[in-house]
Write a structure and sequence with these properties.
This protein has 407 residues and is an alpha/beta fold. The protein has 14 helices and 14 strands. The protein has 2 domains: 135 residues, Aspartate Aminotransferase, domain 1 (Alpha-Beta Complex), CATH 3.90.1150.10; 238 residues, Type I PLP-dependent aspartate aminotransferase-like (Major domain) (Aspartate Aminotransferase, domain 2, 3-Layer(aba) Sandwich). The longest helix is centred in the C-terminal third of the chain and has 19 residues. Bound molecules: glutamic acid.
């Protein structure tokens, strides 16, 4: 009785929630990480390869800058768009790493790149606008588009094509309602990197459609094992309608510090500042001071982490290749592999019926004690995402377990 009352109340209360939240999918990356944490707390020996976060500590020189900021009493509200000296440091970073010229008035610092992206979507999208998402794409792009009451349109790709879309596909997806396209290179979840020539071919298509804005998410720029990633806004004809998103979470092992930023046309930056001023205000003051130290340091200071990710990528690829049924591309960057596992669909393994990637991911959790993320969340329902931002020992053990569970 008590149980059914509780259930009843739960449904009653859910009905009181807005359509906005009821229609919003949960973040699958965060949900899987929470599930893995919960199972670990229950005493299960789970290896979590679900969340994309470096397993390194934030480098000491960045921590020192934060401690100094506390001593220097950086304890009041910061300017909504970020401290001026941080914005200058961001402009210098854009010049140094991306060949992009921005003025501080074009920069907005936010609470993580996720908020940066949400700001941009909220200020540019109207109900009914279409957002093009080359798939696979990071889980929150679609959710943020829904929150902005826009419609997202997936442009599919395959593992055989290294998860790249073609200019012809981009062109075919454009309609009079298209307002934005999201690019993300290196890509989460596939690790795919678009070359300058490939980006220029997309730009040729977009030049014919002057009303489309481009969000270029470059958060994985430094986690790159190939040539330096090319910034979309570095294409002259695209600069005035591209928003470049970046942050310190991935490159500097600062996921919890929550600092992201954009470089954008000034009118878009101003609108994002207005939006943020009503929702969260300026990002955490101490984390902003620490970010100055991070961005002013030579990129060589974080090379040891990138080298380690590179090493792990090679190990993971070699080990996964030994498992029948996994189809892989070679990710050029980020810290994920995104195998196509559709060979297992329609099979029954150890009394688990595998109909789709979600079933497969749940099977791995239950039978191998390994947490991954289903590809549906990334617009690629035949794949699963495995994060290799974990220790080499854990990666070896996890893949051994997966192999055993499937044998
Ligand atoms: N971006 C990371 C991931 O994809 C962090 C989790 C999230 O915010 O989605 O795992």
């Amino acid at each position: 009785m008590a149980q059914s009352l509780r259930t009843h109340n739960f449904y009653f209360m859910t009905n009181q929630l807005s359509d906005r939240i009821n229609n919003l999918p949960v973040s699958e990356t965060l949900a899987m990480a929470a599930k893995a944490r919960e199972l670990k707390e229950q005493g299960k020996d789970i290896i979590s390869l679900s969340l994309g976060e470096p397993d390194f500590n934030t480098p000491d020189f960045i921590k020192e800058a934060a401690i100094q900021a506390i001593h220097d009493n950086y304890s009041s509200y910061s300017p909504v768009d970020g401290y001026v000296d941080l914005k200058k440091a961001i402009c210098e970073k854009f010049k140094r790493d991306n060949n992009l010229s921005y003025q501080p008035s074009q920069i907005v610092v936010s609470t993580g790149a996720k908020q940066s992206i949400a700001n941009v979507a909220m200020v540019l999208l109207n109900p009914g606008d279409e957002v093009l998402l080359p798939a696979p794409y990071w889980v929150s792009y679609s959710a943020i588009s829904i929150l902005a009451e826009a419609t997202y349109v997936e442009i599919p790709s395959t593992v055989e094509a290294d998860f790249k879309i073609t200019p012809a596909q981009l062109e075919a997806a454009i309609t009079p309602k298209t307002k934005m396209v999201f690019f993300n290179s290196p890509n989460n979840p596939s690790g795919t990197i678009y070359s300058e020539a490939e980006y220029r071919a997309f730009a040729k298509v977009l030049e014919k459609h002057p009303n489309i804005y481009i969000l270029s998410d470059e958060i994985y720029e430094h986690i790159n094992y190939e040539e330096p990633a090319f910034s979309f806004a570095a294409i002259e004809s695209m600069y005035d309608r591209t928003i470049t998103v970046n942050g310190v979470a991935k490159a500097f092992a600062m996921t919890g510090w929550r600092i992201g930023y954009i470089g954008a046309p000034e009118w878009i930056a101003k609108a994002c500042t207005k939006m943020q001023g009503q929702i969260t205000s300026g990002a955490n003051s101490i984390a902003q001071r620490a970010t100055i130290a991070a961005l002013q340091a030579p990129v060589s200071k974080i090379k040891y982490m990138v080298d380690e990710f590179h090493n792990r990528r090679d190990i993971v690829i070699d080990l996964i290749r030994e498992i029948d049924g996994f189809k892989l591309n070679i990710p050029g960057g980020a810290f994920y592999v995104f195998p196509d596992v559709s060979a297992f669909f329609g099979k029954e393994i150890k009394s688990y019926k595998i109909e789709n990637a979600a079933d497969f991911s749940m099977f791995l959790l239950a039978e191998a004690n390994v947490a991954t993320v289903t590809g549906d969340a990334f617009g690629a329902p035949t794949c699963i995402r495995i994060s290799y931002a974990a220790s080499e020992a854990n990666l070896r053990e996890a893949i051994k377990r997966i192999k055993e569970a499937l044998s």
